[in-house]
Model the fold of this input.
Amino acid sequence: DVKVTQSSRYLVKRTGEKVFLECVQDMDHENMFWYRQDPGLGLRLIYFSYDVKMKEKGDIPEGYSVSREKKERFSLILESASTNQTSMYLCASRLGGAADTQYFGPGTRLTVL
Amino acid sequence: KQEVTQIPAALSVPEGENLVLNCSFTDSAIYNLQWFRQDPGKGLTSLLLIQSSQREQTSGRLNASLDKSSGRSTLYIAASQPGDSATYLCAVYTGANSKLTFGKGITLSVRP
Done:
């Protein structure tokens, strides 16, 4: 079975802190994604990567950056956390293109105080 | 721009009922459609993926259909159980930038 893991289930940070969210997949998938999920707004794509060291902006990249140094690991970085970044963050991976299922991690509930 | 709509936002049914969850999308030029389940505070679990060339997919008590030309998909759940209570999301893949576009989900409650 494909496994996507995220470094923390719950995280509490202070405004202005630099925050790292880590995601690891174990199935050699090409594509990896970071979403945030908020009540009433659904899932929104922040960034995605289709290869090592490659990244593409999603729908809401402002205030975030990403890093993919190894194929299995995709990191989301909040350079200076703000209260409006309090959310559920979900990582996902997919092998290749249209025929492939997208798999999600368990999520990280981030609270910024 | 692709938009995915799921109505109603919430549904409550008695145990044992057969039910249908609806999903509609605005751009019929899709490669596939995927149904997910999400339990409270958890990640998404893939239930079924239907390719654009397919009309339906089945897994156990679940059956998903796709009518690409009309921009609609349904998820049929047979003999619902309390354990089916969750939020069900549909998502379409249009190929543009390899992104899935998600609906906001239907929160299902199955009453014992």
Q: What stands out?
A: Chain B is about 0% helix and 55% strand. Chain B touches chain A through 25 residues (CB under 8 Å). The longest strand of chain B covers residues 44-51.
